[in-house]
Every structure is written in structure tokens, then in C-alpha cells.
Amino acid sequence: MFSKLTRLQHLTIASDPPLISSNLQNLVHHLPGNLVTLDLHTTGCSTAVHSTPSSRTLPPSITDDFVGTVCQRCPKLERLILDADSLISETCFDKLLHTWSSLTLLHISSPALGWSSVLHLFQSCQCLQDLSLCSSNLAVPPKIAADKAGYSIGVEVAEMYSKQTLSALMPPSLVSIRLYLSLHASVHWDLLPAQDLMKYKGHQIRHLHAQTSFQGSWYYISEWCINLKSLDLSHGHQHNYKLSEREEIVLCRLVKHLEQLEQLALPAANDRILTEIGRHCSKLVRLFFQGWRMRRAGPLSKQLGVTDWGVIALAEGCPELRVLSLGGCCKITISSIRALVFHCTKIEVLELNGCTALTDNAIVLLFQRLGSSLLFLDLLACSKLTSGVMQSVLQHVQAHGTSLRVLTIPNSVKGQSASKSAISQLNKVAPTLSIRGNNNGLHWDGFYHCPPWSYRS
Fold it and tell me: What angle do CA 63, 444, 318 make, to 5 degrees?
């Protein structure tokens, strides 16, 4: 097929389960020479970055041979994503940088790469705008790496550690950074050399991925990254995460300084934090604090610190909200819904999974005010809902139509005879609406490779 697509410039292959090495080797020899974008990544939660090559259960999908062949066949690449299970050596990485010195985007994962790889990247690719590097080697401080390395590499790494060489070489165009130790674990931004990057170049960063980081990193982000538009601080695999008093103070300080934020993901939230977001983040479009991801990985975390007070303050201050996860907020009532439908009229995606205090009246109000704009509504585990809510939804859709594409309701509601009848009629009057009873099908896993959350197409 590729032999006939000689003008193809952009190619994406997303796979879950992981990409198979033999398939990729067959593919690479037929890649069109005019490719500008090559994106090979694993979707879902199966991607893993192994700490050592010996810990692998399967051969890596992407190897030096694969990268070498791509270098030969696709000399015009500007955007490269190799975010599958990879084992790419430093030598091969240097060849990659030499071949594509005009890269604007590079996402790559390999346990063989480290801080010296970042240094070489900054030296070679001064047009870089978007960087994601995932490697367990980033946990090794450069000073220790220098002690273990040979003379030339050791001197280079030692200078990087002591003279802020890394931050001095950071491309002025680089605005998006994701430096991770594993799938959901960021480097420690409060430790060198990452700290220097943030201290001296944090002002130019607009998109920062810092999952599973803690208050030390949060503090430095609030000090030096004041122009952020997107910040991911979510904890991908940690259930029932509870903020300490100190963490709450630091997060409140952080959002006070980030007035340009459009996307924010937190490990947890409470009324105080939501109030500060409402006061200072008026441009916010997307807000998550452990919704979809937690339900997929285990029991939904209850956000016991979130009440109507916090949601109302958020709604009053963030009129641009389009995507909002309130999953696990078991204390919010129809008062929160009133505030959202009045102030946040642009909401398209609303996660209310586990909001056990909501009743039919709250959902009816949602449809009355936002029925023409909502695309996705998750009501799973809303235990107070009855079959009456489906009757109300049907009546609204029959009278006014709906933009809704996905509606999830508790199985206890979906299984009732009255609900079954309403759903049957909804399938006829709104054939594009998918009504689900056990899983919403969206598994938010952080802003990296985040779905667009749009069902309009």
C-alpha cells in the first residue's frame, strides 16, 4: 500500500496491544520518502518502559535497526513519535539527531537514554518545540552518571551538572516538555538538572507533563513556570490519594500564579483548591482530578473534600470550561449543577461518575440548559437516579433534539423496564446517541496522547 502513496507526508500508527517488531521491520522498508510526520505509539495503558533490557518479556518493538532504516528512507522528517516499547542506544540516538536536526517534535522512549541524550538533543535540534523523553535512566543524577562514564562523556556530563549547560542550550522554541522515568512518573523537577531547566527556562514552557510529582516540584512550577497553558499533575496509578495540608497550600499557591492555564489535571481536589482555580484561572477549558482513569484501574476515588461550595466557586470563575471531571464528588448536589449550567454554558464533556447525591432533578436541569451543547455525559454510579431520568431525557430529545453522543447510566437504571422502553425510543429518535450501562469508553490517562473528547464527527 505505501509503495503507491508516494506523496504521503503524515503517517500515524497507534496500537494496543504493543506494536510487533516483525511487522514494523516489514513496514519500514516501504515508508514513503516524503514523510514529514511519523507517529508510532502504543495506546491505552499497556505501554511500559523497562528499567533494564533484561526485564523485558518480549523483544522491543523499535530498535536501532528500525531507526537506522527510517533515517535512510525519510530524510525530511520534522515530527517523530516513537513512543512504543523501544530499545534505542545513545549511538543510534545521536545518528537520529544528525539526520533530522530540524525536528520540531520528538517523542521517544528508551531505557538506554539519559540526561546526556537530552544535552545532545538540545545541541543538535534548536528548532525543537515539543519534547517527550521517557527513560528510567533519567533517575540517575548526571554527577553519578559522569563518575561511571568514560573520560570524554564523563567530563561533558559533569559540566552539564555544574555549569547549567543544559538550560543554556535549551532551544528557545521549546514550549512543551515531558521528561518521564516511566509511563506515569515524571522526573523530579526539584532536583538537578531538571531544576535548572525549570529555573532558567521555565518561563518559556507552555505545556508541562509532571504526573506523580509532589510538593517540591509543585513549588518550583509555581515559581518559574508562570506562563503555562497546560499542566498535568495527576497520579496515574494511585487510588484514594489524599492531599496533606502542606500539599493543599502548595497547590493553592500554584494555581494563583498560573493565570494562563487552559488545561489542568490534579492528583485530588477540595473546595479550597477549586475556589482558587475559580479566582485565578478564568481561561480554563479542561479540568480533571482523577475521574476516568481511576475507574479503569480500580475503585473510583471519592473526592470527599469537594462540596457545592467549591464547584460553585469554580463555575463562577471559569466560564470557558468545556471538559470537566467531577468523578467521585459524592457530596455535590443540584446546587452545583445549577451553577454549572448557568455559568459554564460551553461544557461539552461532563464526568459525574460516583456523584451519589445527585437526583433525577439535577439531570433534568442539565438537559434543559445544556442539552444542545453536551456531547458526553457520564452518570455511572449515581445511585439516586431512577428510571424517571430516562423518561425525562426522552421527552427532551423528542422536543428539542440533542447534541449528545455518549450517555452512561447506572446498570440499576438501565435494566428497569421503563428505562428499556425509553432507551428503545431514544435509539430511534437519536440514532447517533450511544447509551451505555457499565463503561463510558473514555479512559483519560493524562494529557499525553489524550483523546480530543469530541464526538461531533
Answer: 130
As for how many domains the chain has, the answer is 1
Instruction: Match 499497556 to its residue by C-alpha cell.
Output: 46
**Shortest CA distance to 108 belongs to which of 131, 138, 125, 74?**
131
Its domain, for residue 285, covers 206-457
CATH, residue 234: 3.80.10.10
Q: In angstroms, rounded to a whole number, what is the distance separating the alpha carbons of residues 421 and 410?
A: 16
Residue 207 near residue 215, CB atoms below 8 Å: no
Series of mean pLDDT values for 10-residue runs along the chain (457 residues): 78 70 74 91 52 47 90 95 88 96 96 93 97 94 61 59 79 98 91 91 97 91 97 76 90 96 94 98 92 50 92 99 93 98 96 94 96 92 94 94 92 91 95 85 73 45
How far is the C-alpha of 85 from the C-alpha of 18, rounded, in Å? 7
Give the DSSP H or E segment for 185.
strand 185-186
Q: Which of 44, 21, 23, 25 is nearest to 441 (CA)?
A: 44
Q: Tell me, what DSSP letter sits at residue 54?
A: G
Cβ distance 106 to 131 under 8 Å?
Answer: yes
